[in-house]
Amino acid sequence: MQLNDILLFSMRAATANRGRTLLMLLAMTIGVGSVVVLISLGDSARRYVIGEFTSLGTNLLIVLPGRSETTGGPPPLLGGTPRDLTLDDAMALSRAATVRRTAPIIAGSAPVSVGNLEREMMVLGSTSELSEIRHLDLAQGSFLPPGDPTRAQAVCVIGMKGRQELFGRQAAVGQWLRIGDRRFRVIGILASSGVSLGEDLGELVIIPVAAAQSLFNTSSLFRILVEATSPEGMEQTRHFILETIRARHQGEDDITVITQDAVLATFDRIFRALTLSVAGIGAISLVVAGIMIMNVMLVAVSNRRAEIGLLKALGASQRQIMGLFLTESAILSLTGAGIGLLLALLGMRLAAFLFPQFPLQLAPWSPVIALAVALFTGVVFGVLPAHRAAVLEPVLALARR
Amino acid sequence: MIQLQHIERVFQVGDEEVHALSDVTMSAESGEYIAIMGPSGSGKSSLLNILGLLDRPDGGSYELDGLRVSGLNEKEQARIRRHKIGFVFQFFHLVPRLTAFDNIALPLKLSGMTREERQTRVTAALSAFGLGNRAQHRPDQLSGGQRQRVAIARATIMQPSLILADEPTGNLDRHAGVEVAEILEELNHQGITLIMVTHDPDLGRRAHRRILMVDGRIDHDSSRTRT
Lengths: 401, 227
Known about the structure:
The complex is a heterodimer of chains A (401) and B (227). By secondary structure, chain A is α+β, with helices and mostly antiparallel strands. The mean pLDDT of chain A is 84. Chain A has helices spanning 3-16, 18-55, 87-93, 130-133, 160-167, 209-216, 234-248, 260-303, 305-313, 318-354, 366-390, 394-398, and strands at residues 60-65, 99-114, 117-126, 138-141, 155-158, 176-179, 182-190, 195-196, 199-200, 204-208, 223-228, 255-259. Chain A folds into 2 domains: 3-52 and 275-398, no CATH class; 83-253, no CATH class. With 227 residues, chain B is α/β, with parallel strands linked by helices. Chain B has 8 helices and 10 strands. In chain B, the strands form 2 sheets. In chain B, strands 6-7-8-3-9-10 form a 6-stranded mixed sheet, with helices on both faces. Chain B is globular, with a radius of gyration of 18 Å. The chains are: A alpha+beta (401), B alpha/beta (227). At the A-B interface, helix 1, helix 9, helix 10 and helix 12 of A face helix 2 and helix 3 of B.
């Protein structure tokens, strides 16, 4: 039998019974649609997180005080940070050849006020280099001036939202505001009002690190951001940081260095696993669809016994009969998969329209997987009915009714 | 052309064994016109099924055109059905969703013939059987006589040497029945061997040779009495 004849015959057979066809299409549509949507959601979540981390900066190492290790004994009572990271540590790190920039960070929240208006805001103490490391853009004015980080200049850069809430429609640059009991002059406004890893840039106030030290009355740093000159220099820089700090901390390894790559790779792995497991859940509905296809095809075989008997009498071999029925279930599965794919695409478009802040879109490889899985399901669950049709005794199939 | 030797066919019905055919031996020459007659349950349909390779005998041997077909496998038997045997059924067995044209073209499709070849052959067959203006009608739009003519056109489209008809007029009115019988006889005139099962004595009388089946055995064969 020629291929186009097989296809045409099976297509006609598939569409002859509308109710049956719709039922099968529905099952396949739901199965494929849910698999594609789940894969796409997982993949979107992965890309969202990766994007967030990448926006932190490139070739980034993050130095945290304290070291996480599992040793025996009772857990330390107070966080177990043996030694603080200091501004001097940060300055020592910036001396290496593979380090392009460093930015010490002190974070805390403090009441910020202008006249009678006061609100609690996130205060970040850092240096001018933070702007380059974190790719911060300014809408107006300038960032913290470069220079000796130990000098506590009374200047600040504020986020867009804070600016609007504190200054309203007035010009903010050049004005003074009060953080805690200290006065700072506003020299710049942050442009982006996006969210970067949970920190709302719009509600941020950035002041020189020395000023933050005296504001929060502490000498210890929250963390140090180190930008290496190249991706290849990351490992070398990591060693340098560990050794420098060990030398400065009397031989104690009391810091943790996180490389951005490691974090990214970990998140990538986690989200891929997550995507696969939700896809597995979705696959259950495909199995259900498959069983449905099997049932519907079995009914089709018993309804069309006479036709099968006739085909045999006309000289169709078992292989040909089997091929015809398998083609029929494959056509139905693929059509259902196509519709499911289309619905999934529309669903993801709609979700992306409703939640524009998340990068929701169809995972690029999901259509291929969906179609392959649908075809596989259709054929696997079509084998039993097709086999039953093929081995039907022509005499019984043609028996007078 | 046909040689049946000691054919046995046994069905298991509950605990009982029913001998549908027991020790059936017969032969037929090419171009013969045979009516198999007998009361219902006498085994005449079973015999036709064996002749048409739709059923396998439990014992004995069957030679068709000098080929021992009872030993062939399923695929080879399908080939022989396709090329040598045409079937005509009481209930026509047309595929309801296919047009008259497509029903007739079905055996050609199964054999892998190209569309162009099919087109000419089926068109010729349609006009030969007086169905030229019914090509695109589905079976439910045709009369009984027309349906049986479509079925005969389908049975002969592969130019078989043997036509097996199971009560070909059983589901038709008198007029259409005579018409169908005449068509079949015309084919027989052209040299096709025609074997039909019937319990219509009028139709049986038209045949050149009558085989009477009783209880799974050949009770009477008109060719034997003649010789």
